[in-house]
Here is the input.
Amino acid sequence: MRRKNARNLAFTNGVPYLPTEILCKIFHICLPKFPEVTEDGELMVPSVLEAPILLTGVCRRWREIAVGTPSLWCKLSLPTYSEEEEEWQQRALGYDLWLKRSQGYPLSLALYCYDDSDSLAKLRVLLQPYINQISSLYVNIGCDADKPELILTDFTMLQELIMCTGGGAPLAKLIRHIPSTLRSLHVRRFDQKTS
Here is the structure.
């Protein structure tokens, strides 16, 4: 019995000391599916209970490795909706920290555009420093979104765009703002499942 407990303890204590390259591979396997969407079509926001955020709380070494691995921070879901200014500021700080950790790597973002241009304007301000890193964009545009074309302007490095729209979303307006760098465009209706 003692030998079994000692072996388990040795294995448990040995995991944090795996070579950094092995831990990085394990960390990538732990990342959630992107974009993570609920049954209602809503984007799942980053959670402290999932990688990569969860990995930063295990121990100092794991935190250093996770924070220092830009590829763990290259995918982010950002819902936009009306909320109190203080709540937005708090979330924006977290999103900005996430994006800074990507350290210039190409970004894949998932955005849910709800109902007002004020939220979209705040999102544009948040994304402006990273606009040249964004290579892939998943945009879920509600039929009640006000000026959704704001979200598609100035993406000079965008190569992939997936737009999910409701019945009333103005596709013609949106398509006029697609950058010339785009290589892949997918348009889906809300009632279709994402793959």
About this structure: Residues 85-101 form the longest helix (17 residues). Residues 1-11 have pLDDT under 50 and may be disordered. The first strand starts at residue 75 and ends at 80. The chain has six helices and five strands.
